[in-house]
Design goal:
single chain, mainly alpha, two-stranded antiparallel sheet, 74% helix
Length: 657
């Protein structure tokens, strides 16, 4: 608890002491001591401390071990620092910010040392070592900005306090001028109340001048109340106002005595005491003892509850200490009996992390034991981590062997996929998966990459089984390779810009492509699609006129699908559907045009709709021309099939005859 012997300074800068301080004396002074309606400064036994003392006391009550940042990574610490330094009330979070900076520096030093040792172990020269990741730069920048803001904040507060001091000195001078004036007493009193209000609204002043200026203000206020004594009616008015306000304060204090939150009730009671003493004047003499006794009774109820709470709080702290000691003993057991293999280490680490989390979730312990408990926790944690790191360093040779075994299995799966007789390796593939699971520990980062590669190759094998995949035979493979080379050469061709020479040129290239061999299934479809794409790109970059390019692409398309009657029928159906959709959109735009009253070129909306309609009509005409060509092609194909059927029937009749 703070020193209860400290006296009050400026009421705007101080609050009442914690509610555990008893209030004993009665309010007010005798009429002979003070008849001016102002209560003497020491009329109450209410003792006060400054805001700074209360803040300091609260900081001292914060458990020193409360380190919520020790388990955060370096990047998480940077995020925490940035979040807290950018917060609106950052200047109240100094302890956490300093702790983050301290934890980051310690962790980064450890990481820097590890990186340096790894660099030297790999053959690097110590003088060439450099390590400054982005999060370190971000951290340094945040620290610089925080320090800069902190300096600016305190400088600004100092300047504001100096301005407040000047303002309060002006108010005191104004108070002096109110004495012995010839103005109406009501007018003078209003000026006094305005000055009093201005005093309470002005902020804090430098601590060195706080008590002196408050005593000076109080002195001149008392002189003014003596002056007011000449006007008894006005004094009685003030008494009545103060009486009503103090009744309200008493009722609030009595309500606080029924509040379950003892800490909040204590804080609110301090505020009420400040209002009672500093913001309100005296009441009539006959009411002073009555009001003060009633206020004191309500306050003592809250004091008693706070004292009881403090007693129970000590028990809670002691229980927390016992719980933490039990967990520390478990951690000591892990430290003294470290695991001997990876699986045991993994289980131990999980158990250790649970113990750490449970330890940190337990509340405060007694201040006397706080530091020792926290130091023991950190030391045991450090020892366990050191043992773990030492174990995994010794596992590097075994890990290299395991990595080699996994890579060998991946290569074996790839060889099976390339084998023409790949289907007959299904049993081996199952055994390969069993062998993979039997391989020992590999670092997680590399393990994930190897697993993804292995899984994708295995999935490819079993997907082939499910889909009935067939490897192309030797002849098809030769034809496929030749056609791919031919398609690549097409991309470099210069084609004629006139229609007839182009048709002759294309037909020759198409015949050459078909002469390279036959493909089947999906391989054939992919090759035809690649041929179409290559020739289309050549047409696009040629010197042909626009309409010739359109005819050329139609001819290309017709040539590729004319041998496939089903594909031709699907193409005709798709174009008919597309033309129908375009016609519907065009009709909608034409209907929209009917609503325009202004159909001049000065109406941008009308021009936009007209432009879209014209573009749609052009697309419709292009699709119709394409549809006409496809229908001609289909009729020719149907006629050819009819002739072949007739020839077949005639041949059959002749044979029967």
């Amino acid at each position: 608890m703070a020193d209860t012997n400290k006296k009050a300074n400026d009421p705007q800068e101080e609050i009442k002491i914690e509610s555990s301080v008893a209030i004993n004396s009665s309010e007010g002074a005798t009429e002979n001591d003070k008849t001016s309606t102002e209560e003497p400064a020491d009329a109450h036994s209410e003792e006060e401390v400054s805001q700074e003392d209360i803040a300091q006391e609260e900081e001292e009550n914060v458990e020193e071990e409360a380190d919520p940042f020790g388990e955060l990574s370096l990047t998480e610490l940077v995020d925490q620092l940035q979040k807290r330094t950018n917060a609106q009330q950052w200047f109240t979070d100094g302890k956490n910010i300093q702790e983050i900076i301290h934890v980051f520096d310690q962790k980064f030093k450890s990481e820097l040392q590890e990186k340096k040792e790894a660099f030297i172990d790999e053959g690097g020269n110590e003088i060439d070592f450099y390590f400054k990741p982005k999060y370190k730069s971000d951290f340094d920048q945040n620290v610089r900005e925080y320090k800069k803001n902190k300096r600016a904040y305190y400088l600004e507060r100092e300047q504001a306090q100096k301005l407040n001091l000047d303002r309060k000195l002006e108010i005191i001078e104004s108070l002096k001028e109110l004495i012995n004036v010839d103005d109406n007493i009501n007018t003078v009193y209003k000026k006094f109340k305005n000055l009093q209000d201005s005093w309470h609204k002005s902020g804090s002043v430098p601590r060195a001048q706080s008590n002196n200026i408050w005593q000076t203000y109080k002195h001149h206020t008392e002189i003014f109340y003596d002056f007011l004594h000449l006007n008894r009616e006005l004094r009685d008015l003030d008494f009545k106002h103060n009486y009503e306000e103090k009744i309200k304060i008493i009722e609030q204090a009595e309500a606080l005595s029924n509040t379950a939150d003892v800490l909040k009730a204590s804080r609110d009671l301090n505020t009420l005491h400040r209002l009672w003493k500093n913001d309100l004047g005296p009441v009539a003499k006959e009411h002073r003892d009555e009001l003060w006794t009633r206020f004191q009774a309500a306050s003592q109820i809250i004091h008693a509850k706070r004292e009881e709470f403090d007693k129970e709080y000590d028990t809670i702290l002691e229980n927390n200490l016992n719980k933490k000691n039990i967990l520390l003993d478990k951690m000591e057991e892990i430290k003294n009996n470290p695991p001997q293999n990876h699986n045991d280490w993994r289980k131990t680490i999980d158990s250790f992390n649970k113990i750490r989390n449970e330890f940190q979730s337990i509340g405060q312990v007694t201040k006397k034991e706080s530091k020792n408990t926290w130091n023991r926790f950190r030391e045991v944690s450090r020892e366990i981590n050191r043992e773990k790191n030492q174990f995994y360093k010794s596992q590097k040779a075994e890990q290299k062997t395991n990595i080699g075994l996994k890579k060998a299995l991946i290569n074996e799966v790839k060889e099976i996929l390339e084998d023409d007789d790949w289907k007959n390796h299904s049993n081996r593939m199952k055994n390969i998966q069993k062998d993979w699971r039997a391989i020992g520990f590999v670092p997680r980062k590399l393990s994930n990459a190897l697993w993804e590669e292995f899984r994708s190759q295995c999935n490819l094998y079993f997907d082939r089984i499910k889909t009935g995949y067939q490897r192309i035979n030797k002849n098809e493979e030769d034809a496929h390779n030749k056609k791919e080379e031919f398609i690549e050469r097409i991309k470099t061709l210069q084609i004629p810009s006139e229609w007839d020479p182009f048709v002759e040129f294309f037909n020759y290239q198409w015949e050459q492509y078909n002469s390279l061999g036959e493909l089947t299934g999906r391989t054939h479809k992919k090759s035809i699609a690649a041929f179409n794409s290559a020739f289309s790109s050549v047409i696009d970059r040629s010197d042909m006129k626009k309409e010739v390019k359109t005819e050329a692409k139609n001819h290309l398309h017709f040539s590729l699908i004319k041998e496939d009657e089903n594909e031709l029928a699907r193409e005709i159906q798709n174009i008919k559907k597309g033309v129908g959709e375009l016609n519907a959109e065009a009709r909608q735009l034409e209907n929209n045009l009917d609503y325009f009253s202004n159909t001049s070129n000065n109406n941008p909306l009308f021009v936009d709709v007209t432009t879209k309609l014209n573009q749609l009509k052009e697309k419709i005409e292009i699709q119709k021309e394409k549809l006409i060509g496809l229908r001609k092609l289909k009729r020719a194909l149907d006629a050819k099939n009819t002739v072949e059927e007739n020839d077949s029937e005639e041949k059959g009749i002749t044979e029967e005859a």
